[in-house]
Every structure is written in structure tokens, then in C-alpha cells.
Amino acid sequence: MNQQEYLQNRVYDQVKWLDAKSAFNQKMYKRFRLGEIVAAAAIPFLVGYHDLNPVFPFVTGFLGVLIVVLKGIEQLYKFHENWLSYRTTNEALKREMFLFESGTDPYNGTDAYPIFVKAIEGILQQENNTWKVNVSVKPDAPQAE
């Protein structure tokens, strides 16, 4: 594989994939957290209206259950951890790519391409190891906040 093929098929593709996955996980994390915050904030408000309508205790209970379910899903899919990991790896790849494409140290010698490939593959291996740890760790039991 020549230099241009490697850049196109390995580096640019990984940067694009990591960018999309980071954005997706960020969006999901923020949506789940927002749901938890809104549900948690509504509970004390609704408790004050329990005597006015018999449906309010059920709504309050449902919101409590919703918080636990949202937190459990968030921990199961590890949206926050994935967002941070993918973004960190993406930025590391882009940094190496910019240094290489500009011929900046350590990529200013005759052996720049092999050094670049080794650095990129090291970053990707580190991401794979991080992913493996994330999927291997069992989530904590969700707790109502």
C-alpha cells in the first residue's frame, strides 16, 4: 500500500468514522442526561400536586422509573465514555496527519512514512484496547438521582 492509499483508505476513513461516532455518542449522551435532569426536576414539583389529582402519584412514580431506565441504558451503551474516547482518538489521528502532511518533525526525514504508519497504527491499537476495556467492564447498577 502506497502512501496516498494509506492516507485515503486508513487514516482519512478512520478520522471520518471516529468523527461520526463521536458526534453520535455525544448526542445520545446529552439526550439521555437531559431526560434524566428533566424527570428528576419534575418529581419534586409534581409531589406538591398529589392531592389535586390521583394521576400525579403515578406520574411521579413513572418519572422515577424513567430516570433509572435512562441511566441504565446510558451506562449499558457507554455513550459518554465512547464520545470521549472517539473524540480523543480522532484528534490524535488528525494531529499526526497534519504533522505528516506538512513535513514537520518527526516526519521531515527520509523515513517519514514508516514512522507515520507506526504512529497511526499505535493510536488505533490504543483505541481498540480502550474499546475492549469499555465493553468488558460491566456497568454499575443504575441508581435514582
Shape: rod-shaped
Order of helices and strands: HHHH
In helices, the fraction of residues equals over 70%
Proportion of residues in β-strands:
under 5%
Mean pLDDT: 93
* CA-atom Rg in angstroms: 23 Å
**Span between termini:** 53 Å
- Look at the helices and sheets and give the structural class: mainly alpha
- Uncertain segments: none
Walk me through what this model shows:
The chain is mostly helical and 145 residues long. Helix 1 packs antiparallel against helix 2, helix 1 packs antiparallel against helix 3 and helix 3 packs antiparallel against helix 4. The termini are far apart. Helix content is 81%, strand content 0%. It has one domain. It is rod-shaped and about 80 Å long. The protein contains four helices and no strands.
Task: Provide tags for this entry.
0% strand; single chain; mainly alpha; rod-shaped; 145 residues
Topology diagram in text:
Elements: H1 3-47, H2 55-77, H3 79-102, H4 112-136
Concise synopsis of the structure shown:
The protein is mostly helical and 145 residues long. It is 81% helix and 0% strand. The chain has helices at 3-47, 55-77, 79-102, 112-136.
